[in-house]
Amino acid sequence: MHKIDIPDQVKEGVINRQGYLHAIEVLEPGKTALLVVDMQNYFMADGQLGCCPVARDIVPTVNRLAGAMRDAGGHVVWIQNATPLETLKSWANLHAMYSDEKREIRLEGMTRGSNGYALWGDLDVRPEDLRTEKTRYSAFIRGASDIEAQLRDRGVDTVIVTGVATNVCCESTARDAMMLGFRTMMVADANAAPSDAEHNAALATFMSFFGDVQFSEEIIEKLKVSMR
Fold this sequence. Notes:
Elements: H1 8-18, E1 32-37, H2 41-44, H3 54-57, H4 59-72, E2 75-81, H5 87-90, H6 92-95, H7 100-109, E3 130-134, H8 147-153, E4 158-164, H9 166-179, E5 183-192, H10 196-209, E6 212-214, H11 216-226
Parallel strand pairs: 1-2, 1-4, 2-3, 4-5, 5-6
């Protein structure tokens, strides 16, 4: 697991700006969605190009959050990353950052139906949960997925972001959600990155300018309070 350390100066800056530490103190489950980003074999299995081993450590926490969200009447959304061949043109600048060999590995690893594309087997995915696919780091950027429409149709105004990697797809998704008007939170102990430094830097920046950062137990307690 990550050693989580958000600097005191970041917390002090947040308090100075808004008068208190946490932007989200109350959750209305019917208007709240837990987003689980890219918890796929490609990002979690040994030997995969995108493997982030810490992502395996957060699986029990993600499952607990998903269970608490369902119990409270909220929404759980599983987001999978895909790299269809059309992205060779539409996102050519990304593919240019890979060698020919690594580009092919990435394309094959996140092709629909491949082992890499599949969700990690230990995740507690239920039939009633929502599923969506994205083709960019952010699920909310124009044309990347249908997640915004799915959430708007259900009256969701608050999203809680978990998954891998904290500083890439999770942060990109969370930032864009905030800028589209969703109250947005990242979960300190239910996101994973290749290193503690990358994880903590992403959380600190997000908390400073974009939304809230809380631990899973704080969120679960808020969900329990909503049911009383």
